[in-house]
């Protein structure tokens, strides 16, 4: 039996609320500390506790981090998911299970390892009775240390990180790890080929989730006001802001230079944000699809009154409540036209954890340059799961507040300014902020018809002129937006376009397409809408362009078709929206299926 080293997935099946998160993250971080590229995906139910939950850890010597649909090692402590877990093990794989689960194991094509989890925990006098169920999860961590080569020192370091150096919980959990390993050494014979061996491919990298990255980027971007209402999967973004703000924004006199407010609902959250943005604060709110729906009216006000704000949408499956704990890219069409009437949005599309950080601070600069709401679309997979990333870099450029007139500026203008006057023919007017003491600084903000000097009017020609200026402003905005990322292969004739967290799956699928099917591809990842000129150039260079995304209707495909009607025949939608993170298999099979029918 040939060894399979650093190239397999481990899935752990437990119950929601059982405390397995600590054990699973310990395995993930230990593999990372062994220098092995790794990623983790948490598949959890939307109730508080009791229903089945799964955590999949992928080790990949080649650096592939997308979800794999194959599961070589499965650990289950949950009788309710036992049969499903057993059936999910790939042929030749390994199945570990708690031996108090009295269900038949009728597969002969995999290695079977029963574990006396409850007995080992009960026999450990250092574990208090009320902690046994929680600490019991560490037994399978210890078993894996012996069976697949998970490094003990790396496990201890991961526990030290998780418990922030608190010795008592570290010792208690590590004791259970050692008990599991010792039992496995004495009782289990290795019957599967899967092993971990140290590498050096994670040096200089960090592990982080997108919501935490976005929170830190938001703080580094000078956020002064954050309003939010709890909603999965966006809550941890605002919670991380609450955690890090006191550390990173601590004044010597103890006073806060920021406010974080939990509003009564999403409508109130964006209303507060618009008010704060109008007053001159860098203001942000975060939500997911259902909350975004409630925010529509205020988003339209911010668009028409030209108030700079940032809205993070960590996408999940809809419509309505949908699947609250599953990932998606199905809010794009809605976000692009937030607000009724002729409105359009500026949307940023981070594709990895590092970009969540970067767009966290860049979004404020863009909002104030353009004087408009900026929507940043992440998703549950990127936002709540752990990813390898380059360390975050502190912004090297000073904050750009855009076109603001202060007292000195108004004095030089001698009153020759209007709040919605396009003096530089770029669609972007100048603004003043409350607190400006110059008598000419005042204007009245309104969501009804107004002229260049913010005076109320219902004159049709004035309204039309204002709307044309807003259109021009969104063309100007392209100068400030992040350009697409392009991966080229010499000689490739086929293009792939996507956005967001699908990049990892697409890059892996491209390797398979070339190796197994001789299909060479170029890949462009969109990072912002309005679309950059590079996107049109990329489409024009290829006879076939596959648009890959995690939704049912191909929303990016639709946006590209509207933007480039001359190239519609070249665009081919590869859309898939089942709530699971993108995998290389469905990307590859989706492209091959469409290619066969083209």
Characterization of the model:
This protein has 598 residues and is an alpha/beta fold. The chain has 4 domains: 4-195, Pyruvate-ferredoxin oxidoreductase, PFOR, domain III (Pyruvate-ferredoxin Oxidoreductase, domain 3, 3-Layer(aba) Sandwich), CATH 3.40.920.10; 208-389, Rossmann fold, CATH 3.40.50.970; 407-479, no CATH class; 485-596, Rossmann fold (3-Layer(aba) Sandwich), CATH 3.40.50. The protein contains 21 helices and 23 strands. Strands 10, 11, 12, 13, 14, 15, 16 and 21 form an 8-stranded mixed beta sheet that branches. Strands 3-4-2-5-6-7 form a 6-stranded mixed beta sheet. Strands 18-20-19-22-23 form a 5-stranded mixed beta sheet, with helices on both faces. Strand 5 (71-76), helix 2 and strand 6 (89-98) form a beta-alpha-beta unit. Helix 1 (20-33) packs parallel to helix 5, helix 6 (152-162) packs antiparallel against helix 7 (167-187) and helix 10 (266-278) runs parallel beside helix 12 (296-305). The longest helix has 21 residues, at 167-187. The two termini are 43 Å apart. The model has no long low-confidence stretch (mean pLDDT 95).
């Amino acid at each position: 039996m040939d060894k399979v080293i650093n190239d397999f997935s481990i899935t752990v099946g437990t119950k929601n609320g059982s405390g397995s998160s600590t054990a699973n993250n310990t395995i993930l971080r230990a593999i990372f500390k062994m220098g092995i590229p790794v990623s983790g995906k948490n598949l959890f139910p939307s109730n508080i506790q009791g229903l089945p939950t799964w955590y999949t850890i992928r080790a990949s010597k080649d650096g592939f981090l997308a979800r794999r649909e194959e599961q070589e090692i499965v650990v289950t402590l949950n009788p309710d998911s036992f049969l499903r877990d057993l059936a999910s093990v790939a042929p030749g794989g390994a199945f570990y299970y708690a031996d108090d689960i009295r269900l038949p194991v009728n597969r002969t094509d995999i290695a079977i390892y029963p574990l006396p989890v409850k007995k080992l925990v009960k026999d450990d006098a250092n574990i208090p009775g009320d902690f046994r169920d929680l600490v019991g999860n560490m037994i399978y961590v210890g078993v894996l240390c012996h069976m697949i080569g998970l490094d003990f020192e790396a496990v201890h370091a991961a526990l030290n990180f998780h418990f922030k150096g608190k010795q008592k919980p570290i010792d208690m959990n590590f004791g259970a790890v050692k008990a599991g390993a010792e039992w496995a050494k004495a009782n289990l014979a290795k019957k599967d080929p899967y092993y971990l061996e140290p590498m050096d491919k994670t040096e200089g990298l960090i592990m982080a989730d997108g919501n935490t990255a976005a929170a830190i980027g938001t703080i580094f971007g000078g956020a002064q006001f954050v309003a939010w209402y709890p909603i999965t999967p966006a809550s941890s973004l605002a919670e991380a802001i609450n955690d890090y703000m006191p550390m990173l924004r601590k004044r010597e006199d103890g006073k806060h230079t920021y406010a974080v407010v939990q509003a009564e609902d999403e409508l109130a959250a964006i209303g507060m944000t618009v008010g704060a943005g109008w007053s001159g604060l860098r203001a942000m709110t975060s939500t997911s699809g259902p909350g975004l729906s409630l925010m529509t009216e205020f988003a339209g006000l911010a668009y028409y009154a030209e108030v700079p704000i940032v809205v993070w949408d960590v996408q999940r499956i809809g419509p309505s409540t949908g699947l609250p704990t599953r990932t998606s890219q199905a809010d794009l069409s809605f976000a692009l036209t937030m607000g009724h009437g002729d409105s359009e949005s500026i949307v940023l599309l981070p594709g990895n954890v590092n970009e969540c950080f970067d767009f966290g601070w860049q979004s404020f600069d863009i909002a104030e340059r353009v004087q408009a709401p900026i929507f940043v679309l992440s998703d549950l997979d990127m936002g709540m799961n752990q990813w390898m990333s380059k360390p975050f870099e502190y912004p090297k450029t000073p904050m750009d507040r855009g076109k603001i007139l202060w007292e000195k500026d108004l004095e030089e203008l001698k009153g020759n300014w209007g709040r919605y006057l396009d003096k530089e023919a770029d669609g972007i007017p100048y603004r003043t902020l409350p607190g400006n003491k110059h008598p000419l600084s005042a204007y009245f903000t309104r969501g009804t018809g107004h002229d260049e000097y913010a005076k109320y009017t219902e004159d049709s020609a004035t309204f039309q002129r204002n709307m044309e200026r807003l259109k021009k402003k969104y063309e100007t905005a392209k100068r400030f937006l992040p350009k697409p990322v392009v991966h080229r292969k010499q000689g490739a004739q086929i293009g792939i376009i996507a956005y967001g967290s699908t990049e990892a799956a697409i890059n892996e699928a491209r390797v398979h397409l070339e190796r197994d099917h001789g299909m060479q591809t170029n890949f462009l990842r969109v990072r912002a809408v309005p679309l950059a000129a590079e996107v049109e150039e990329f489409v024009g260079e290829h006879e076939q362009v596959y648009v890959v995304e995690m939704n049912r209707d191909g929303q990016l495909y639709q946006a590209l078709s509207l933007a480039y009607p001359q190239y519609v025949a070249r665009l081919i939608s590869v859309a898939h929206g089942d709530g699971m993170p993108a995998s290389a298999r469905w990307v590859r099979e989706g492209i091959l299926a469409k290619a066969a029918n083209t």
